[in-house]
Amino acid sequence: MARRNTMHESDKTNPNSHDDEGSRDSSANISNSYRRQTILNLHKSGITTDVISSQTGIPQEKVDKIIQDAYLIERRKGEFLKQSLHSSSLKSSSPNPQVDLNSITTKSQTRVWKTLEGEPEFVISVAETQNVLEKFARYKTTFVILNVDLLGSTRLSMTLPVDRLTMIIQAFNQEMSIVVKEFGGYVLKYVGDAVLAFFVTSGNKFEAKVACISAVNCAKCMLRIAREALNPILDQYDYPEMNLRIGIDIGVNAIIQIGWDIQSNIRKTGKNNTNINKKKKEHLVIRKPVYDILSYTMNIAVKMTALANPNHIVIGQQVYDLLDDNQRSAFQRLDISPEIWSYVSNNTGGNIYNIYTDI
Predict the structure, then answer these.
(1) Who wins on pLDDT, 3 or 64?
(2) Rounded to an integer, what distance in angstroms lies between the CA atom of residue 250 and that of residue 355?
(3) DSSP 3-state of 36
(4) What is the dihedral of CA 353, 345, 223, 254, to 10 degrees?
(5) Domain positions in the chain
(6) CATH match of 94-255+293-358 with 3.30.70.1230
(7) Among 99-103, 143-147, 334-338, 349-353, which range has the highest average pLDDT?
(8) pLDDT tens for residues 305-325?
(9) SS3 of 39, please?
(10) Residue 88: pLDDT band with limits 50, 70, 90
(11) Burial profile 54-85: b = 16 or more Cβ within 10 angstroms, e = fewer
């Protein structure tokens, strides 16, 4: 997807010019996107291109090109997913990830000590997540969504000084993020006392199974880190223990742009004038799109998290169905009143979407 990274020369002296231009670009993009989607929807419904052209007022050759480009994009998407899932830069963990849990726990203890001493280590870059999402921009993509929530943070905020609460939240965010990365996932964002993450899958059954297993193993590791690394150290400081709740589901997601990351670079240029070297500052504004995930899957994953008991995992029916018999034996279906849980799924024939918790 083409995008402009730097401003024109005329914009360099007017820092506000990019705002107006950005608004015009945004409106044009919305209009073009709507027109393109309308053409594709009409084509998918069986309407011929000549009729689409006459109804929309768009030249037929342009209609044909939009449809051809859409097919090309879908083909490239499939090729990209196939290649990227087997590359080192974008992959899911293997069904039996070679993760040294003892090493992770020991390192976590060291980091937590430092965090509670006021020296947090932020080792997860949001740029990595944005680079991944950029590759899927404009696509509908299957992800496994994992939401981990720190239970009782509201009570903590009422009983602990702000500085202590901040350190606890920092330790939680830091350690959960590192575990996500260890299992091949990506941190999407931090929402107060929760961490939202996703695992990449091409959508075929095998890759979906791999991503689901990775997410479940990641969740189990999170609970272990809280139990063996975070809580023993928090206890030494007379801080309350951490209790986690985790929700996991799989489904189709839309990658949407939610804004721009605007950075100003100052570059010095030399200019000779009567043998005197004078420095002139040149301002360059670099814009990079910022992406987020929008989906029913994410909403369900967050909502099912609230139904988990402290230090337990809740997974959706589609995740459960992709696990093997041995893995499914560690979960049982939650019997919940329809007044509390009434969400449905097209994949379950419109019936209530079952959810399962670890035993």
Answers:
(1) 64
(2) 12
(3) helix
(4) -170
(5) 12-82, 94-255+293-358
(6) yes
(7) 143-147
(8) 999 999 999 999 999 999 989
(9) helix
(10) very low
(11) eeeebeeeebbebbeebeeeeeebeeebeebb
The Cα–Cα gap between 226 and 184 comes to 20
* Torsion angles phi and psi, residue 303, rounded to 5: -70, -40
Banded model confidence at residue 219, pLDDT cuts 50, 70, 90: very high
Q: How far is CA 169 from CA 41, 104, 112, 175, 334, in A?
A: 46, 19, 11, 10, 29
The closest of 50, 68, 47, 67 to 59, measured between CA atoms, is 50
270 Cβ neighbours under 8 A, 6+ residues apart: 277, 278, 279, 280
H helix intervals, 45-152: 49-56, 60-84, 101-116, 126-136
The position carrying tokens 């947090």 is 120
Q: How far apart are CA 168 and CA 149, in angstroms?
A: 13
Q: Decide which of 105 and 2 is more confident.
A: 105
How far apart (Å, rounded) are the C-alpha atoms in residues 146 and 100?
21
Beta bridge pairs of residue 355: 316
Residue 13 binned pLDDT confidence (cut-offs 50, 70, 90):
very low
**Whole-number average pLDDT of the chain:** 82
**Per-position DSSP letters for 175-217, written without gaps between them:** HHHHHHHHTT-EEEEEETTEEEEEEE--SSHHHHHHHHHHHHH
Please report where in the chains the tokens 């602990």 appear, as a residue. Answer: 160
The most confident of the ranges 153-162, 181-190, 233-242 is 181-190
CA angle 224-228-234, nearest 5°?
A: 120
Q: Is 224 left (phi over 0), alpha (psi -120 to 50) or beta?
A: alpha
pLDDT at 134: 92
Q: Enter the pTM of the model.
A: 0.72
| Position 64, amino acid | D
